[in-house]
Design a protein that fits this description.
Layout: H1 34-45, E1 50-54, H2 74-78, H3 85-90, H4 92-111, H5 116-127, E2 131-136, H6 142-146, E3 151-153, E4 156-163, E5 169-171, H7 172-182, H8 203-206, E6 221-225, H9 234-245, E7 249-253, H10 260-271, E8 275-279, E9 292-294, H11 298-305
Parallel strand pairs: 1-2, 1-7, 2-3, 7-8, 8-9
Antiparallel strand pairs: 4-5, 4-6
Helix pairs in contact: 1-11, 5-11, 9-10
Length: about 300
C-alpha cells in the first residue's frame, strides 16, 4: 500500500489499536491534530531518502523511561544520573554496583518489545523505501526487533558486552547465565526499567555481588555502550556523516538532541541544507533551527501515516 493510500479523516477510534503502551513513562501530550498529520505526511512524501534519528522518547511506549521528559523522565522523578565511563573503568565498587543492578534489570529490559513507532519506521524503510538509515541513540535493540535493516546504534547496544583489555565480545544473554552461576543466591525483584537496563538495589545486597570477567583474559567486562564521558567511536561518527550526506532529509523522532552526539547530526543537516522535521513531546535543542516541529506522541502520528 503506497503512501498516498492514507485515508483522510480516519476515525479516531481506529487509532486505539496503537494505544497498548505503558503510559507510565509517556509525558503529558495533546492529541495529534489533522494539520500535523498532513504536514508530516507531506514531509515524508516529498523526501526520497530519509535519515531517521531516534531517541529515548520513542521507547517510552514500550515501557522504557527516558531521561529528560517533564515529570516522568528519570532526571525529573529520581534525580537519576547515569554511570560515567571513568567511574566504571577505575572503580571495582562502581562496576559491582552497575553489574548487580543490570543483572536484576536485564529480564524486564530484554523482554521489552517494539511499539507502533518502531514498526512504522520499519515500514518506511522496508515497504515504502523512504528511510535509508535509522540512527538511534537508544541501546534497547527495539529497531532490530521490529525488523529495521540499516540501523546504526550511535551509543552502542546493551545486548553486547566487550572486554576492555582484549576486546573479546560476548552476547549479553550469555553474560546473564554466567552471572547466575557466580551469584546463585542473588535475587531481587524490581519493576523498574531504565534506558540502559539499570535498576535500584540496596547497598547491603550490592556488596554480595560478583561482577563478570572475561573468559579469555579475566579482564574487565563492560556493556558495549557509550557511557557518559566517553566518545562515540570515530568510525561510527564518520559512517553517520556519510549516510546523512547521502540522504535528502532528516527526521528526528523522540529525541531532545540535548547530547552533542545527536545535535551534531542536526548541525550537519543544517550545513548541507537538508529538510529537517522533528516529532517530540516537549522542546528540543534544535527547535529554533527547523521549519517543521510537531509536538506529539510518535506512536500516535506515525501509524496514521505509515
Amino acid at each position: 500500500m503506497g503512501m498516498h493510500s492514507f485515508v483522510k479523516n480516519i476515525p479516531r477510534k481506529l487509532n486505539n489499536i496503537y494505544r497498548t503502551y505503558s503510559s507510565q513513562f509517556v509525558p503529558k501530550h495533546q492529541i495529534v491534530s489533522d494539520n500535523d498529520i498532513k504536514l508530516l505526511r507531506n514531509f515524508i512524501d516529498n523526501s526520497q531518502k530519509i535519515l531517521v534519528l531516534t531517541g529515548a522518547g520513542i521507547s517510552t511506549e514500550s515501557g522504557i523511561p527516558d531521561y529528560r521528559s517533564a515529570e516522568v523522565g528519570l532526571y525529573e522523578k529520581r534525580n537519576y544520573k547515569p554511570i560515567e565511563h571513568m567511574q566504571f573503568c577505575s572503580s571495582f565498587k562502581v562496576r559491582q554496583r552497575y553489574w548487580a543492578r543490570n543483572y536484576i534489570g536485564w529480564f524486564n529490559f530484554s523482554q521489552c518489545q517494539p511499539n507502533a513507532t518502531h514498526f512504522a519506521i520499519k515500514n518506511l524503510e522496508v515497504n515504502n523505501k523512504k528511510v535509508s538509515t535509522v540512527v538511534t541513540q537508544n541501546v534497547d535493540n527495539l529497531h532490530k526487533k521490529a525488523g529495521s535493516k540499516n540501523v546504526i546504534e550511535l551509543h552502542g547496544t546493551a545486548y553486547r558486552v566487550i572486554c576492555l583489555s582484549c576486546k573479546a565480545t560476548y552476547d549479553r544473554h550469555y553474560i546473564q547465565e554466567k552471572l547466575k552461576e557466580t551469584n546463585p543466591n542473588f535475587e531481587e525483584i524490581t519493576d523498574m526499567v531504565r534506558p540502559d537496563g539499570d535498576v535500584e538495589i540496596s547497598v547491603e545486597r550490592l556488596a554480595e555481588f560478583t561482577p563478570p570477567t572475561c573468559d579469555v583474559c579475566k579482564g574487565i567486562l563492560k556493556p558495549d555502550i557509550v557511557f557518559f564521558g566517553d566518545n562515540v567511536p570515530r568510525s561510527r561518527v564518520e559512517l553517520v556523516k556519510k549516510q546523512l550526506t547521502d540522504s535528502d532529509s532528516l527526521l528526528i523522532l523522540g529525541s531532545s538532541v540535548t547530547v552533542f552526539s545527536g545535535y551534531r547530526i542536526v548541525l550537519q543537516a543544517l550545513e548541507e541544507k537538508k529538510n529537517i522535521a522533528i516529532v517530540n513531546i516537549g522542546p528540543t535543542r534544535a527547535d529554533e533551527h527547523v521549519s517543521l516541529k510537531i509536538s506529539a506522541r510518535c506512536g500516535e502520528i506515525l501509524p496514521l501515516i505509515c
